[in-house]
Structures are given as structure tokens and as C-alpha cells.
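Q: What would this chain look like folded?
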Amino acid sequence: MSTSGHALLLYCRAGFENECLAEASHLAHQAGLSGHGRIQPDAGFLRFQLQDALPWDEVARRLPWQDWVFPRQRIVLVARVDHLPAEDRVKPILDAVKQRGIKAGRVWFETADTNEAKELSSFLRSFAPHLERAFDKTGVMSKKPGAPTLHLFFEDSGSVEIGLSPADDAADWPMGIPRLRMPRAAPSRSTLKLAEAFLSLMTEREREASLRPGLRACDLGAAPGGWTLQLAERGLRVYAIDNGPIADSVLETGLVEHIRADGFTWRPPHKLDWMVCDMVEQPARVAALIGDWVASGRCRRSIFNLKLPMKKRFDEVQRCREILAGRLADTGQPWVLRMRHLYHDREEITAYLGPAA
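A: My prediction, written as C-alpha cells:
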């Protein structure tokens, strides 16, 4: 690894390495940094080498987690250890961590999310406890509030990348993958997209304020009702808008009114707290719809999916940002827009739009 500056390690869905590189280049330029990366197709991760010699936490501060869309996690690399001896892999890693004075609140053993990398899972399950005990004995682990997360990224059992992320400015799960339970009443796995969006795109304060029993919402393009169920299970009353059928398990919550209508033309009878939308349509058209709903006051908050084209995905995301910003500028109010390629997304990204705190 070059000594000119730290590198970023970005985990992503395999096949989205180009989008991670485009975004890393864009955000680095915005932050006054320079860097480069090399694509390994379908690797499930990207290394982006920065030329600027800055402390790791300053790199993280200039490239905050909430600004990223395509990575599942953003890590600042601080060391790499190669040629780990099979008879004692613990000592070289421990030495590298101690030499850099790292004090971590937690340690995560990680790989890329690919079929090839999954073969390392059994090795890590047996190896991790030995290194964790060594960290505990030598004072690497810290109980100090705000201590960073230590990431150990293995491409194979003989080498490891060592990185850090701020405790309060990164994805909350190893490899950026939340472990969510499928609701028993859910009619489709798409329900997990909205569940993940609530956790990934909103703060705890925002969730407490807006996902409360008695609030009102609508789900545009609701059938068969996976997103509607997520709202109803939190006690919200929901208009499910779709010409297609809604699953009986969703209607049986007693909080859902199914209205057979086109999600692009239906309008609510009164102002709503939420509008969610997972319609299959051109992303620019969906962005314009969401912007119109929020700017006109029909809803206060929205979570929505943008189905991306096969090419120029990053450019399309930027285009949708501009559409939303242009429409919301007319309101004169501050808004928060967060976008993420979630673990449960495929060829789409999910976005949250709501009032700034």
C-alpha cells in the first residue's frame, strides 16, 4: 500500500465496483482530496488510494458516511499484513495493530460478500476468538465511549487489511449487512428493503418521532403489501395504493385501506406523515413525483426506491438528486436527503427524504 496517504476500503454488492469508484472520485474531489482506484470486476469491494497524508479520522471526517450511496461500508485502511504464517497468524496482526496505537471499541472480522469469499467463513469462526483474546490481554480493546471500530478484512487466510471507522459515522453491522428477520405476515421479501431503510437511512430520533402508532401514511404501488406491512406493524394507518391485490395477511392488521388506483395520479384526502414508494418506473419520474409530494405538503417524509439503468448508474443518481433539489428549493425549508444501495436492494437504490432536524 502506498505511503502517500491512507486508502479507503469500500464494500459493495458485486458488480457495483464502477459506481463505488465514480462516487469515491466525486466525493474526494468535493472534499479537496485526490486519489485513484483500480476495479476488480465482481470483487465486492474497492480500494481507493488517497494521495493526501492525513490522519485516518480526518479522512473519515472529510468523507462522512451519510454522503455515500453505493458502498455498504466505508473504512479507512491503516495497515496491511501479508504472508501470515499458518502456525501463528495472531502475532503479526497484533503487532501491526499495537504499532499504530489502535484502541478499538469493537473488532469485526470481514470478507467480501461473494461466493468465493464465503469459503473463508469457517476459517474466521475458528481464528477470530484467538485474536480477540490477544486483543483483550494486550489492551487493544477499549471501553471508552466513541472508540472506533477495528475492521480486519481478509481476502484469503494469508493476508489482512487493517482499517478503522468512527463508532458514530459508519454502517452499524459487520460487512455493512444487517441481519433482519422476515415478518411472518410479509407477502414478499421486498418488505426487508423498507425495514433496512428505516435502520440505515434514519437516525434513532427520526424513527422515534415519525414511526409512531396513529400516524398516517400511504404506500404507492403497494401490491402485494410488503412495505405497507412494515408501516402497519408500527401502528401507522396506511392507504395501500395499487390496482393489484394486497395480501390478506396485510389487510388483517386492521390498519390498511386498499385503494385501487394509479400511484402516479392518486392524491390523499388530507396531509400525511409518510409516503413510501417502490414502483417500477424511470428513476427521474419517481424523483419528480416524490419531490412534488413533499414540496406540496401532501406528505412530511418519504422513503422510495429508484430503479437504476444498467449503465451510468452514478450519473442517474446525481440527476435524481438535482431533480429533488430543484423542486424542494421552492419551499424555502431545509430538507435531508439520504440515499443508499442497501443490502436488500438489487438494481435500485433506496432514499429517505424528510425535514432537517
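Residues 190 and 334 are 30 Å apart (CA to CA).
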